[in-house]
Write a structure and sequence with these properties.
By secondary structure, this protein is of the alpha+beta class. Helix 3 links the parallel strand 2 and strand 3. The longest helix has 16 residues. The protein is globular, with a radius of gyration of 13 Å.
Length: 128
């Protein structure tokens, strides 16, 4: 079995193509210093209103440790999405550890704005 079963609470889950787009963007955001890694940091960006969108790992164990984030996202109207692997998310963040949640942050005049907007749209399409 190639993919382990994904926790049904991990919704919306990005498919392979969207996951790749998201992880590429996370990697670029990391280079542009527009990335916060970890559940606590992601929560802070949401509370401060500086998050473009949140990416979480569906294989966080137990998943409940990040399930407060979707609620907060919905409060703040911030798109959020799950990718399958915390290992892959960690690699995209440029760290050697698994990462279960990241936040792409808002930055004035950011070069990534077009990619961020198209990814936000793709994520919002998953939610309908």
């Amino acid at each position: 079995m190639l993919f382990p079963e994904v926790n049904p609470k991990a919704y919306p889950l990005a498919d392979a193509t969207l996951s790749k787009t998201i992880l590429d963007l996370v990697q670029q955001a990391s280079n542009y210093k527009q990335l916060r890694k970890g559940a606590n940091e992601a929560t802070k960006t949401l509370n401060r209103g500086i998050s473009e969108f949140i990416v979480m790992a569906a294989d966080a164990e137990p998943l409940e440790i990040i399930l407060h984030l979707p609620l907060l996202c919905e409060d703040k109207n911030v798109p959020y999405v799950f990718v399958r692997s915390k290992q892959a998310l960690g690699r995209a963040c440029g760290v050697s550890r698994p990462v279960i949640a990241t936040s792409i942050t808002i930055k004035e005049g950011s070069q990534l704005k077009p990619q961020i907007q198209s990814t936000q749209m793709a994520i919002e399409r998953l939610l309908v």
